[in-house]
Amino acid sequence: MTQETRYVVGHQQPDTDAICSSIAYAHLKQEQGENVLPARCGEINPETRFVLDRFEVDDPDLLEDVTGKQIILVDHNEYSQTAPGMRNAEVVEIIDHHRVGDVETGTPIHCRIEPIGSTSTLVTKLYREHGVDIPEHVAGLMLSGLLSDTVVLRSPTTTDEDRNIAQELAGITGVDVEKYGRELLQQKSKLGEKTPREMVTGDFKEFEMDGGTVGIGQVETVTPEQVLEQRHAVLDAMHEIREERDYIFLTLLVTDLLEEDTEAFFVGDRQNVFEQALDTTVEDEQASLPGVMSRKKQVVPPLEEAMK
Ligand code: MG
Ligand code: MG
Ligand code: MG
Description:
By secondary structure, this protein is an alpha/beta fold. The protein folds into 2 domains: 6-187, inorganic pyrophosphatase (n-terminal core), CATH 3.90.1640.10; 196-307, Diaminopimelate Epimerase, Chain A, domain 1, CATH 3.10.310.20. It contains 11 helices and 11 strands. A 6-stranded parallel beta sheet has the order 3-2-1-4-5-6. A 5-stranded mixed beta sheet has the order 7-8-9-10-11. Helix 2 links the parallel strand 2 and strand 3 (61-62). The model has no long low-confidence stretch (mean pLDDT 95). One magnesium ion binds at residues 17, 75, 97, 118-119, 149.
């Protein structure tokens, strides 16, 4: 009997780590004789497009709804970030580098979550553990996911393992980490024709905190002025979104990848809690967060603590 096809899927509004780790992990499983395909549940962003073109890899198939399917989750494990239908799918495996979320399973599954810089780093480790050779294009994809998530090894989420594995993958791919990394950052910053609303929702996550839901968007860029000079339009979009979705508050982190600083827009209630948690002052709905690059590590934990 042939095994039912399993799909490796990353989160909504997929980033380069989500897409690249799904392709790389599906390849690893195929090498082990399993019937596994990479998939995605959202549009390919410009940075990821650059990566797929560069290594001549096809887009993973788009899954509009995963109801009834067998799913391997990569790069997330919370229902607020999953593909539509996930509550009625069978999650058979999780490979991630985020906090443990709320995805439930009916039976015990393989689950690998580590506090490292990217899911791509973790997938590289799995190739090593299973003794499977990493083809050049797969090394290129995993290096891209790793460098994208860690902002070329600059984010505080970066570990020594990420640094070592980046060098190893760069060796296989034949690129220079810093040089290729800078190319990637340029791509990440391409906001193109994004509307203010798309700037807010492009890389967006919801968090259930004491008292309700908080929305946190992030724009990672080498040209933050492109966003900051549109502050009125961006703030208007944020007010709209907050009203539609009934958030306690909504913040947009505009992260300058080269300066390693963030300017945050803030709309909503509990401003004093936000200020206290992040040790800042909100003036005209904007606050400076020097040294902040990581939503996951530097913004969410203090906010959750302060909201208690
Ligand atoms: Mg991700
Ligand atoms: Mg990731
Ligand atoms: Mg990210």
